[in-house]
C-alpha cells in the first residue's frame, strides 16, 4: 500500500471488536513511535500502554471517548525535556508528541488496526486515574483495536476545504 492510500483509508474508528491486540502488533506501533522525529531529537514523549480491562474501564471516569477499545496508548510529554525556541520560549513538547502519535496512528492502520485520537478528557481526573509522574503532561489518548464489522466512518471523513483555501504560495 502506498502512503497516499494509507493516509486516505485511515479513519477515526469509534467501534472496536473486543479482541485483544497481539503484543507483536503493539510492539510494531511502539517502534513507529520510536523512530518518529522530535525537535533536536530530545524525545520528551512517554507512552503508557493500557491493556488491562480494569485500567481501560477506568478511562470512562475522565472521557466518554474510550470507545471500549481493548488497547489504549496514553501519550504524555515532559515540557522541560523538550527543545524550546529561544525567541519566544515556545516548547516543542506538544508538537513532538503529535508527531509520534501520528506515526503510531498510521502504523496501526497499516497493520489492520483502527485508532481514534482523543484529546477530549478531563486532565485532572486522568492524572488521578493514570497516576503519571508530576513533570509529565497527559496529552492524548489513542484507543486502538480491530475495527468492528459494523463500524461507521464519519460522514465528514471525505470532506475537505479547497486546496486553494488551504494552500497559498509566497504570500497570504
Compact overview of the structure:
This protein is an alpha+beta fold and 172 residues long.
Question: What keywords describe this structure?
Answer:
single chain, 172 residues, alpha+beta, 4-stranded antiparallel sheet, 6 helices, 14% strand
Give the terminus-to-terminus CA distance. 35 Å
Give the helices and strands as they follow along the chain.
HHEHEHEHEH
* Uncertain regions spanning at least 5 consecutive residues: none
Number of helices: 6
Rounded mean pLDDT score: 96
Strand elements, count: 4
Strand order of the largest sheet: 1-2-4-3
Percent of residues in beta strands: 5-15%
> What would you report as the Rg, rounded to the nearest angstrom?
17 Å
Find the structural class using helix and strand composition. alpha+beta
The shape, in one word, is globular
The main sheet comes to: 4 strands, antiparallel
**Proportion of residues in helical segments:** 25-40%
What do these coordinates show?
By secondary structure, the chain is an alpha+beta fold. The protein has helices at residues 3-9, 23-34, 53-58, 93-110, 123-130, 163-166, and strands at 45-50, 71-77, 114-115, 137-145. A 4-stranded antiparallel beta sheet has the order 1-2-4-3, sandwiched between helices. Helix 2 packs across helix 4 (93-110). It is globular, with a radius of gyration of 17 Å.
